[in-house]
Amino acid sequence: LLCPCLIYGAYIFLPFDAPLLPTVSARLVYTLRCAAFATFPIVLGMIVSGISRLCSSALEPFGELHREMEIHRTYVSQSVHLFILYFFNMAVLATYLPQELLKLIPLLTGLFAISRLIFWMSYAIGRSFRAFGFSMTFLPLLAMLLWNLYGMFVLEPENLLS
After folding, report:
1. Which of 24, 44, 53, 137 has the fewest CB atoms within 10 Å, i.e. the most exposed one?
2. Can you give the chain as a three-state secondary structure string?
């Protein structure tokens, strides 16, 4: 329930509009530029993971991982997988959205980045708390997938493979 409220509130109250993007290629470039910001939590996780490995007191740096290093490694791995799904869904979504709704692209990017950071913090606290951060990442991704499937099979079935 929190994700749709956050997106709606940001859509209504944030004072920016998407630029005029009449072609599909311009929309994909815009999506690519927005998606670059979604890699920030992943890069930050890689840096923290590298620093924690460097500062580890383990005799074998590539041997058995401590809990802290395992948390960072798992976070980066899962974030990369979710980012790939996010990016492809966002690219398809950008082709189906009308011009006035293209403001959702940077908003969904921001939600992805913030939710990955929340997941990382809650994962460090304990396994039972990470469901909130994961659901803030996964449920918008699922909504994008359903909208993309709706757009492909219901709105424009004649352009499915073109």
Report:
1. 24
2. CHHHHHHHHHHHHCCCCCCCCCCHHHHHHHHHHHHHHHCHHHHHHHHHHHHHHHCCCCCCCCCCCCHHHHHHHHHHHHHHHHHHHHHHHHHHHHHHCCHHHCCHHHHHHHHHHHHHHHHHHHHHHCHHHHHHHHHHHHHHHHHHHHHHHHHHHHHCHHHCCC
Q: What is the pLDDT of residues 33-58, one digit of tens each?
A: 999 999 999 999 999 988 887 777 65
Q: Convert the pLDDT of each residue in 97-106 to its tens digit.
A: 888 888 889 9
User: Thinking of the domain 23-156, which architecture would CATH place it in?
Assistant: Up-down Bundle (1.20)
CA atoms within 13 A of residue 87's CA, in its CB half-sphere? 15
CA-nearest of 127, 4, 134 to 81 is 134
- Distances in Å between the alpha carbon of 93 and those of 13, 48, 97, 145, 154? 22, 32, 6, 8, 14
Model pTM?
0.85
